[in-house]
Write a structure and sequence with these properties.
Bound molecules: beta-D-galactopyranose
GO molecular function: carbohydrate binding
Number of strands: 13
Order of helices and strands: HHHEHEHEHEEHEHEHHHEHEHEHEEEH
Pfam families: Peripla_BP_4 (PF13407)
Organism: Anoxynatronum buryatiense
Strand content: 15-25%
Number of domains: 2
Protein name: Monosaccharide ABC transporter substrate-binding protein, CUT2 family
Shape: globular
Structural class: alpha/beta
Subcellular location: Cell envelope
């Protein structure tokens, strides 16, 4: 980046000098007075904005919030991956607000980015930011979460989110003994398209086990109303998600778990099974169930392999997590950005329908982690250091 940047600056300065010179030059050729007027044109090149625009970042990255370890992880991995890059990149956080997000995108557009990598706070609301970028001829890469409801999304990099939910559901099924096991369902934010994909994957695996009596749903009347339906519509899923959403907020997750346990009878407790959508909410929900005297044991899912949850898994306070190797998502999105900057068409492996268009996409697989494979999946793979944990 320093090399490239400095070279650009020298080049621009050199070009500017030339232009200015040329400007002068026409003056020395009064012969063509009319012409000389023309030479005024050279002001064009003088539009220093062009050169200065290139002093700004070529790639802008916008992430949902710093308040969740997941997205701080992505920032770290981007910085690691770009440490020796020639390209200048700026990373901004939207702090859980779509208006902040739009402001972030507008400020990056003003700085002249050519590629925007954006993980939307709210998939629908982010359409405005994508449209603003498209209007400036900037390529939009949706990152992890899909921007929905607009044509202005060029590419999408993500994990197999349906497989995340299916892995969480399967883990509960594999741990369940006998029948009539109390099942507590929790979900992500309804503004996040991934929350629907996670829930769809989990429902595909859990619904047959509710129908055959292995599980009994405790905390969602909407889910009980639909428990005989193997495949749910988006609206039907939306009704359940609205009832058990955590909004990806640790405190909301805790409050929901407390109110569900308060209204549940002892027969709905004992050895229970909990579908928690990600690690941050899983720790809050697990801690709440752990304090309820009528709960004798619980199996609780997670996602993201956050350091705190990996420690919970080692300590037996959370049962599993779904590891999404953020290094591969960062690598895929940077490769896409570089291809675009080099005028190439990025590689993709499929597409996602965002409600308006089929967005070419690249998808990464996920890995289930529990006490048995923390070492292999997270330490031996170099994702974390053993020294970051105790009792490993
Ligand atoms: C999802 C993301 C998850 C999770 C969640 C909360 O969209 O795929 O990894 O962390 O957001 O921010």
């Amino acid at each position: 980046m320093y090399t490239n940047r400095k070279m650009m600056a020298i080049l621009v300065a050199f070009l500017l000098g030339l232009t200015l010179l040329s400007g002068c030059t026409p003056a020395s050729e009064p012969a063509a007075p009319s012409e000389p007027a023309e030479p005024a044109e050279p002001a064009e090149p003088a539009a220093p904005s062009e050169p200065s625009a290139s002093t700004g970042p070529e790639v802008g990255i916008v992430l949902p919030t710093r308040d969740e370890p997941r997205w701080v992880q992505d920032e770290t991995r981007f910085n690691e991956a770009l440490a020796d890059s020639d390209y200048s990149v700026e990373i901004l956080f939207s702090q859980g607000s779509s208006s902040n997000e739009l402001q972030n995108v507008e400020s990056l557009l003003t700085k002249g980015i050519k590629v925007l990598i954006i993980c939307p706070h709210d998939g629908d609301a982010a359409a405005a930011a994508a449209d603003a970028a498209r209007a400036e001829g900037v390529t939009v890469i949706s990152y992890d979460r899909l921007i929905t409801g607009t044509e202005s999304v060029d590419y999408y990099v993500t994990f197999d989110s349906i497989a995340v939910g299916a892995a969480q559901g399967q883990y509960l099924v594999d741990q369940a003994q006998g029948s009539d096991n109390p099942l507590y369902l929790y979900a992500g934010a309804a503004s996040d398209n991934n929350a629907f994909l996670f829930f769809e994957g989990a429902w595909n695996v859990l619904q047959p086990k509710v129908a055959d009596g292995t599980f009994r749903i405790i905390n969602s009347s909407e889910a009980v109303n639909l428990q005989d339906k193997a495949t749910l519509t988006r609206d039907e899923m939306g009704r359940i998600i609205n009832q058990v959403t955590t909004n990806w907020d640790f405190n909301e997750a805790r409050n929901k778990a407390e109110s569900h346990l308060t209204s549940a009878g002892a027969a709905d407790k004992g050895d229970v099974y909990i579908l928690a959508p990600n690690d941050g909410t899983a720790r809050s929900i697990a801690d709440t169930f752990a304090t309820d005297g009528d709960v004798t044991s619980f199996v609780v899912t997670g996602q993201d392999a956050e350091i705190a949850s990996v420690q919970y898994i080692i300590d037996g306070r959370q049962s599993m997590t779904v590891f999404k190797d953020v290094r591969s998502l960062v690598k895929d999105s940077i490769e896409m950005a570089l291809a675009v900057l080099d005028g190439q068409t990025p590689d993709t492996t499929g597409s996602y329908d965002n409600g308006v268009t089929d967005v070419p996409a690249k998808q990464t697989e996920v890995i289930v982690v529990d006490q048995d494979n923390v070492q292999a999946a997270l330490i031996d793979s170099g994702y974390y250091e053993a020294s970051q944990f105790t009792g490993l």
